[in-house]
Amino acid sequence: MASKKDLAYIVVLGAAAVLLALSILNTAFGITFPLLVVKSGSMRPLIEVGDIIIVTPVNPAEIRADPVTGDVIIFYRPGYKGMQNSIIVHRAIAATPTGYITKGDANNAPDYWGPVPYDHIIGRWTGLSIPSWTGIGYLSLFLRGEIYPPLGPLLVFILIAANIALIIKDIKQKGGSKNE
Description:
The structure is a single chain. It is built from 3 helices and 7 strands. By secondary structure, it is α+β, with helices and mostly antiparallel strands. The chain folds into 2 domains: 31 residues; 100 residues, Umud Fragment, subunit A (Ribbon), CATH 2.10.109. Strands 1-2-7-3-4-5-6 form a 7-stranded antiparallel beta sheet. The longest helix has 29 residues. The protein is elongated, with a radius of gyration of 21 Å. It starts with a helix and ends with a helix. The model has no long low-confidence stretch (mean pLDDT 86).
């Protein structure tokens, strides 16, 4: 029977493997998962920086466009489809034959790049989110280097290097104790 320590290792490694697989799918194929960390304050006060919003796929024909009650949609900025750093979260305020005019609630004017083509739309915000005050979204932004660069990725590198060093140390100690 596995010890509690072994079970903890299995759980942590399993979670890491799932997150790694999701990251690879996202990077290689542009497949987005239903959670998105908000990077800007353009949708304040409804959505804050660091909120993790829950996104669902949507048929562009089902999007409600209105300056006050329109759907909050997630899309690639026109001209940057597929680029992860160009994902925008704004409200659909008007529909055109070629796409949607969008605007951040905190912005004074509609987005200058509009309309957003239908094939650039990733999904619609469900209205549910993990609030920024939990710190989870900020931690994600920090570790990816999107806030306080390059400290987050540097910290990840240091932690990985320290873990590798500890693993090597454990292997050497176990190897040395078998010889005695």
